[in-house]
Amino acid sequence: MRSKGIDVESVILIVEDQATDALVLHETVRDLGDVYQASDGPSALMMARRCKPDLVLLDIEMSGMSGFAVCKALKADPKLCDAAVIFVTSHVQTENELRALEYGGIDFIHKPLNVPVARAHIKAHLALRNEAKKLANHDALTGLPNRALLKDRTEQALQKAHRSQTRVAMLLLDLDNFKGINDSLGHSIGDALLKEVAERLSQASRSFDTVSRQGGDEFIILLPEVSGFDGVGDFAERLLSTISAPFILQGNRHNLSASIGISLFPDDSEDSESLYRHADSAMYQAKLDGRNRYRFFSLDIEHSSRGRHLLEQHMRSALETGVFEVFYQAKVIASEGRVVGMEALVRWRNKDGSLFSPAEFIPLAEETGLIIPLGKHVLEQACKDAQMLVAQGMHVVVSVNISAVQFREETFLQMVQDTLLASKLAPEFLELEITEGVLAKNVTNTQQVLSALRGMGVRIALDDFGTGYSSLTYLKRFPVDVLKIDQSFVRDMLVDKCDAAIIEAIVKLAQALGLELVAEGVETQEHAAVLQSFGCQVMQGYLYSRPVPFIQFCALLDSGEFSVC
Ligand code: C2E
Ligand code: CA
Ligand code: CA
What we know:
Elements: E1 11-15, H1 19-29, E2 34-38, H2 41-51, E3 55-59, H3 67-76, E4 84-89, H4 94-102, E5 107-110, H5 115-137, H6 147-164, E6 167-175, H7 178-185, H8 187-204, E7 210-215, E8 218-226, H9 229-244, E9 247-249, E10 252-254, E11 258-265, H10 272-288, E12 294-296, H11 299-321, E13 324-333, E14 338-349, E15 355-356, H12 358-368, H13 371-391, E16 397-401, H14 404-408, H15 412-423, E17 430-435, H16 436-440, H17 443-456, E18 459-465, H18 472-477, E19 482-485, H19 487-492, H20 497-513, E20 516-519, H21 525-534, E21 538-539, E22 548-549, H22 550-559
Parallel strand pairs: 1-2, 1-3, 3-4, 4-5, 11-12, 14-16, 16-17, 17-18, 18-19, 19-20, 20-21
Antiparallel strand pairs: 6-8, 6-11, 7-8, 9-10, 13-14, 13-21, 13-22, 14-15
The structure holds ligand C2E and calcium ion (CA) (2 copies).
Residues 343, 401, 433, 463 line the site of one calcium ion.
């Protein structure tokens, strides 16, 4: 166990050419730090360069290079000169002692060693040194790492990121209008606020991030392990919101905001200097743009990150104001022109009336979790619309796309059940389209959810079949009702024999396993004819109808304009 007051990271170097003395010294300091040993002057210097000792226990009388010469060399090296040197000697001579102090030694230990006394000396010097080290590396007001320590950590992080080909992010955070607070409320309130800001920033960061104060109202947060910029933008957003929560000091409320500049290694900076300069200029830009915001140094990153955040914000408010619409695309029995189903496809209507494609926003909705409320909205609307058709005596099954994120949500089953109940739609008129990816993960849980859905009477379709983690064992293991042949095979089957062969194989597979089949992306009569010749009956595609709003879909049903084959 290490003694109280001694930093566990203390490094002690013993330089002693007598093996027995070295052993006694080692035993004396073993629990006071990481102990290194050398038995002559030149190897002591080499070892010191490697282990950067806090304390050197240095024998004076050594053959070759004397302890004095070693001490002189240590003190002449800017990287080692801070090490505390305690001489160890069996010759108690004033002249020797004076010389040792002249060379920069700070104390003596006499041989033969009085262990308790020697330990007390060593411990006192280590404690002093640790205190000095802390003062040199930390900001006195907040206790956060200061500029010097940050520089050290930045260098280390850059080396590591270079080796492992990852990113490092530097966020420079500067409080907005802080000078005004200091001037009007006085420095003691200003200092108390800075301490609280330091605390909040530390709370918001991970243990391996470095939150440092540079001086004044400027803080730097170093993120040594970063995968993508989006995460960094989210983190900056969190820092802004933690700063904008009111500060209560002595019963008074103070509101602060901050501007943050972000630079990234290796995207826009290659060393710690440019990382800092670029974070600083990005912070300046954030101030110019109106404060209380963050900016990336790189314009490309700025645009992609801002675009993503804007889209996310828009999506949230679009969900609240209900501008997501559900369109329907018919599934038709080609030979009869009879509609047997409709697929619900979500659309986002812009202010100017144009439509956003789901391919543009579904991935982000999945990433942010917005897919949960969005998917629920689509399912509710789809069940309501389908029930209207069923109530008029039409036998049309509605298919709803379910993303993996939604499927894995704990409340998913209950949500489906509640929605069916609320809409009064009989479960056999609801089909859920999932992709093979859903089946590939978390097999036991997936099986349970699918069996429960089957138990309720809901049908399951495998969407984009043939493109995912196709494994035929899925088809045996999971209760699936329908295979949807992916549109890429249909699109290319007339020119690519392989695609035609794949479709034929899927049709045979479905027939053998007693599964229903739907071909998607059917655009031409020729497609429909070839698919029919393979034995596929139900089709979906522009040939029959594009996805359209429900009213238009009803009109199409009435006109019977699907009887094209
Ligand atoms: P998907 O489930 O494979 O849907 C079929 C896509 O093919 C739809 O694109 C549809 O408009 C398009 N399509 C239909 N017939 C044809 C055709 O003949 N030719 C061509 N070239 N395309 C055709 P959309 O509506 O843009 O949807 C894209 C994807 O977004 C969907 O692919 C689905 O994965 C996802 N999606 C749409 N709505 C939802 C939803 O409510 N929830 C979830 N989780 N995903 C959805
Ligand atoms: Ca689908
Ligand atoms: Ca599909």
